[in-house]
Amino acid sequence: MNVLMKRRGWITTALAAVLAAATACTSSGSPAPRPNPTDPPAETARPGVLRVLAGSELQDLAPVLEDARKATGVTVQFSWTGTLDGADAVSSGRADGKYDAVWFPSNQYLRLDPTGKSKVLSETPVMVSPVAVGVRTSVLEELGWGDGSKVTWAQIGDAAAAGKLSYGMSDPSRSNSGFSGLVAVASAFSGAQAALTEADVQGASPRLKQFFTGQKLTSGSSGWLAQAYTRAEPGKVGALVNYESVLLSLNRTLPAEQRLTVVRPVDGVVSADYPLSLLSSAAQGERDSFQRLTSYLLKEDVQKRISEMTLRRPVTAGVAPAAGLPGDRRRELPFPGTRAVADGLLAAYQNELRRPSRTVYVLDTSGSMEGSRLNALKAALGRLTGADDTRGVRRFRDREEVTLLSFASKVKWTKTHAVPASGGQPGPQAELASINADVQSLAASGGTALYDSLEEAYRVIERQQAAQGDDRFTSIVLMTDGESNEGATDGDFKRFHDALPAGEKAIPVFPIRFGEAAVNQLQGIADLSGGKLFDGTGSLDGVFEEIRGYQ
Fold first, then answer.
1. Across the beta sheet with 120-125, what order do the strands follow?
2. Is 2-128+274-314 in CATH node 3.40.190.10?
3. Nearest 5°: phi and psi at 11?
4. Which H or E run contains 134?
């Protein structure tokens, strides 16, 4: 699990409770301590505890799982991950012995790998939610789509291509909702009637590229995407591609002018069925716990509660969905037939189909970074220039503009690279090597003028946008191991930020906590800019990779 574990951190649900004394005792006969929220998963199995690698959206099941513990004696101990990263962990064997089960929104990607498929002993779908398009009600009216019940993917694509519909979607290389959305539009545009092939993807590519011109927000998670929608300037984002359940839940909190009409395209969807899946490496005791838990979750009254609480659809026959959920289901669109087709589609999205990125890396190279810390930074950024990345998860993308800004007491230097598209001359490899050379030249000395350097990053972006006149996904990544102790203060930066034009003010900053970094300063920057704070104290490699989903 190396990078995955370090990146996500080991988070155990707060629903963990004291195990029954008869089944959870230490060798001395004393009750075993219950798992705490910050505990890593146990290296060895424990009676009555089911160690589950899961998608973070399942946090909303905490009350149901607490009642399940009381009824069955089974405590669920979660660790969170993205669906595709989790599938990689299972396929590679990194989940063996560390987890008893996995619980992703979907196992479709996992099943494409024969090794991964063989590691799942059984799976039990627990609830269903299709990926849909939530369209701001005022935009729906402008498009003349009525109540949205007859809209097709082609209509959505045509509106996006014409500049009439802008939307947010999570990164398909990270999030299952984004991946499902990508598969849905590729299948719909290709007209595929069976498993999606490479030829289908190629045939649909021109329309896919037009469709993704409408994407104005990207994110590594469905939750952050919903938050970004609520912060977006009026008129910038008119829709979200996300789970039906997320869209309906979001409507509970939105003001009237931001509420979404959930459009389930009539030509089909790709759904998440949330299969709780037992790993073949699980011991007999955990297999028994799995059986008790799944039997409980499929009970009619429990299914009804799950649907009402989460706005996902029940899977047990005869159980009506929660109020507001339609009883009918759209047909399921074809999924890629092989792992190679799925990864090829993901790589095409990152390097060809989506709008390109503009990223400024503001890198602390003060004296405190000398030695192992600077080496860790060089290694982590250097990984982003590698070529061993089949689905575009890590490396700098084709067409991406990457700026490195080295700072200490002042900005030392700024260097910008434009990564060429693959297939042409020159290809991306020479520019990726040049980025790596600049990364490896970083040297530590001086103090920490964090806010001055961050202000310069905004000025760099302003100059780049003015010179090129383009519209890219734009973000700033700030990595520091200390506290700003020279130059502008946090108050100065707030005044600077408040005076920015609306477009620049909307550029998110993703600070990385490292070493003795001042968390209050970094959290303040993230909150002010609409970004997100990441913790790099465990692994800079994992954090830089995770942030790619937000760029």
1. 75-81, 49-55, 101-103, 275-279, 120-125
2. yes
3. -115, 120
4. strand 127-136
Say whether 392 sits in a helix, a strand or coil.
Answer: coil
**DSSP state at residue 25:** B
pLDDT single digits (tens) 379-416: 999 999 986 665 666 789 999 999 999 999 999 999 99
- Residues with Cβ within 8 Å of 200's Cβ and at least 6 positions away in sequence, in order, are 186, 187, 190, 191, 192
DSSP single-letter state for residue 424: S
Selection from 408, 400, 399, 493 nearest residue 447 by Cα: 408
pLDDT digits (tens, 9 = 90+) for 357-372: 999 999 999 999 999 9
Distances in Å between the Cα of 401 and the Cα atoms of 180, 418, 545 are 27, 4, 17
SS3 per residue for 436-454: HHHHHCCCCCCCCCHHHHH
Cα 214 from Cα 135, distance rounded (Å)? 13
- C-alpha–C-alpha distance, residues 370 and 385, integer Å: 23
pTM for this one? 0.87
Q: Does domain 356-550 have CATH number 3.40.50.410?
A: yes
Question: Is residue 526 classed as helix, strand or coil in its secondary structure?
Answer: helix
Q: Residue 332: helix, strand or coil by DSSP?
A: strand
The DSSP string of 433-500 is HHHHHHHHT----S---HHHHHHHHHHHHHHHHHHH----EEEEEEEESS---SSS-HHHHHHHHHTS
Residue in this structure with the two tokens 């073949």, named with its chain if needed = 280
The one-letter amino acid code at 468 reads Q
For residue 230, the Cα-to-chain-centroid distance in whole angstroms is 18
Question: Which segments in the chain show pLDDT lower than 50?
Answer: 1-39
Please give the structure tokens belonging to residue 170: 């999570």
Would you call 370 helix, strand, or coil by DSSP? coil
Report the amino acid identity of residue 466. Answer: A
**CA dihedral of residues 240, 243, 245, 251 (deg, nearest 10):** 0
* 195: region left, alpha or beta (phi > 0 left; psi from -120 to 50 alpha): beta
Domain spans in the chain, listed from the N-terminal domain onward = 2-128+274-314, 129-271, 356-550
DSSP, collapsed to helix, strand or coil, labels residue 196 as: strand
Task: Write the class of the CATH domain 129-271.
Answer: alpha beta
In angstroms, the Cα distances linking 423 to 152, 340, 393, 429 are 33, 19, 19, 11
